[in-house]
Amino acid sequence: xxxxxxxxxxxxxxxxxxxxxxxxxxxxxxxxxxxxxxxxxxxxxxxxxxxxxxxxxxxxxxxxxxxxxxxxxxxxxxxxxxxxxxxxxxxxxxxxxxxxxxxxxxxxxxxxxxxxxxxxxxxxxxxxxxxxxxxxxxxxxxxxxxxxxxxxxxxxxxxxxxxxxxxxxxxxxxxxxxxxxxxxxxxxxxxxxxxxxxxxxxxxxxxxxxxxxxxxxxxxxxxxxxxxxxxxxxxxxxxxxxxxxxxxxxxxxxxxxxxxxxxxxxxxxxxxxxxxxxxxxxxxxxxxxxxxxxxxxxxxxxxxxxxxxxxxxxxxxxxxxxxxxxxxxxxxxxxxxxxxxxxxxxxxxxxxxxxxxxxxxxxxxxxxxxxxxxxxxxxxxxxxxxxxxxxxxxxxxxxxxxxxxxxxxxxxxxxxxxxxxxxxxxxxxxxxxxxxxx
Amino acid sequence: xxxxxxxxxxxxxxxxxxxxxxxxxxxxxxxxxxxxxxxxxxxxxxxxxxxxxxxxxxxxxxxxxxxxxxxxxxxxxxxxxxxxxxxxxxxxxxxxxxxxxxxxxxxxxxxxxxxxxxxxxxxxxxxxxxxxxxxxxxxxxxxxxxxxxxxxxxxxxxxxxxxxxxxxxxxxxxxxxxxxxxxxxxxxxxxxxxxxxxxxxxxxxxxxxxxxxxxxxxxxxxxxxxxxxxxxxxxxxxxxxxxxxxxxxxxxxxxxxxxxxxxxxxxxxxxxxxxxxxxxxxxxxxxxxxxxxxxxxxxxxxxxxxxxxxxxxxxxxxxxxxxxxxxxxxxxxxxxxxxxxxxxxxxxxxxxxxxxxxxxxxxxxxxxxxxxxxxxxxxxxxxxxxxxxxxxxxxxxxxxxxxxxxxxxxxxxxxxxxxxxxxxxxxxxxxxxxxxxxxxxxxxxxxxxxxxxxxxxxxxxxxxxxxxxxx
Lengths: 438, 471
Prior knowledge:
The structure holds two protein chains of two kinds. Chain A has helices at about 15, 25-30, 40-45, 55-65, 75-80, 85-90, 100-115, 115-125, 130-145, 180-185, 200-210, 210-220, 240-245, 245-260, 275-280, 295-300, 325, 335-345, 365, 370-385, 395-410, 420-425, 430-435, and strands spanning about 150, 155-160, 170-175, 185-190, 195-200, 225-230, 265-270, 290-295, 310, 320, 390-395, 415, 425. Chain A is an alpha/beta fold.
């Protein structure tokens, strides 16, 4: 499937430059060491030690630039101990862009020390190559039951025997046999097309939660949005960026840019907080690519449609967890809430501090299982207090983490993506024909 | 630092509570002044006995010890200018007791101000001192620096709430000062001596605080003045009419413009000044107070008075005030922030004087702060990279201090002396008082091991320190 070829917009040179240590002076100067990040950093609030918090890491980045400290293992360890949840940046009175500083300092470490072997293999061999990632996913889906037990009620897996990086009680997601592209075509035309959307699936929806992607395509098709979903798209690169592996990051983004450039569409859709943040940053100066989170698009498209919970989701209290990268990274706060309120009315309740990080942070939960679990347990306490039957969020990363938490805490709460909830709401739940009739 | 000493320290606090790597030490080398001095080690004691053992060791082997709360001070009080061991209170962060019968809280020094407020509020009680850093600064640090805040105009500052202390002296001896009573006159008031002593006389390990009943309600209003002098006169006039607001904050035209640029709140950018006023107390008296205050504002030339109808509107009014620090950063990269205080009746004079200083040295100066208690944050905008401009800023500070003292004011309302203001302390107190203070310091700390290099200015020593430890 090829559509009208568009002229490729060249990547401006400076875009690549902003993540080098020499180019973040303006950010570093802006940090006046006031310490306000100490009041919000989820890692600091657990550990209470200055190396855990943004201010300490910024001081170390400055020290690294001045040569006061070197790219030691100790420094790498300290800089690695950050979820990149961006809570500090969202609360910083001086608006320090901590993401930039962290990526630059981690990249400086990688430049000197190289990546740790496991990360190198995962990032540069597996993720950097879409084909190998696909192979790993399909092999993994076959092999997973040898290593893991199924926990049916939680739709997840637990390890059968000790496996490195997997704690004993951790619930890990199952890899379904058929990924999103095995299930859906690259082009899903809407009957009464009013808009064309490029769906950037991201790895998690593609391989781990294809049902989320299916729900998205179904709902948007019903709403007159044609979905373009080329299989050639690759990982958004967030994991590589976070690891400071900028080579892989730029390789992936370049590939995606090429793929994106070959299609004509009105809007690019993401249903992943992390992926959406990367895309918005990447295309912020490109007038041809308008990136939106699915909730932002839906809020407009759903206007004037009478929504109500379908059979599957009726009669329960619903609460919402803000994905950090959706809320603090993209500033998307109200749209998901407006949608949930439209569907559930008073059955939608806010939990205490819904913006508090769940502790996932992609690889952080794997490399720092203890702190991640402690942060998660606070979220679970807040969830429990709402008595909600469904917790909704906008990022697959959070969903994996929340499912683990719900399982460990013995809760019965269902963890759902916003788009799954919309798909389960009337008029969508009854199917396209009912919708068209209504 | 010698290996042998580190071993001894390790024996006291345990290996997991001792940081010695250069990387981790960097993280305890600064405070909000952004000056950087590397300590030799950082320890996290878990109890008073461990603190005492550390000080006995320091006193015996003569190494500097610097107590540290959250490291949010504005004058370098917790920065280890001569190296040594930083005692960080991250582990001693328990609220030991909230005594509802006697309206008292007993806390360890590492408790965050905000955490105490929340616990008190749950019980209908209130801890008023509210420095801007209240969400992350510690009570121990607040006490050591005698922190203030916007509520000081009605409720006073940290010293007004400290009833008793447990302190470890530099010799390692543990003493208790004060009593858990409202009244206590037994010898010298050592409690007050330790409050604001910036960690130079002893290490505070437990604090007994006075709490008050939580005010029933509050009202917030915002008054706009075309002429800053009218705003300044209004401040003294409100006080003269025997009204004591909870807060009486002001921001000048520069501050208003910066915030408006930054947040687009719809602030009047032509205004000479804005006053943000809050009153609290029993619900039924508030309306008449608000009415009186708006009248005073109008009589003094306010062009508009806006009264917040609910919490949300009040929050919006406060947002402007709270965003000043961040928003003025773009005027110039370096702000020289002085927290001078003058008698409240002198607020109009100091405002006029500052305008003259700004003109004389050709530097933008942004004024805002706690006009209600005469404590004004004077921000002289400069650039650390521009030597000539920094020199002018320094001269401007000297002129400012001379003016403040001539008006009967004080060169530091709430930030303390630390290292930033040490050269000027004698200007206010006189040499004889500085000498008395030095004698007291020697009495408490004969070997000069506790937070050395603070308060007292020594030109030669300062240079030496700058050369040897500046990162």
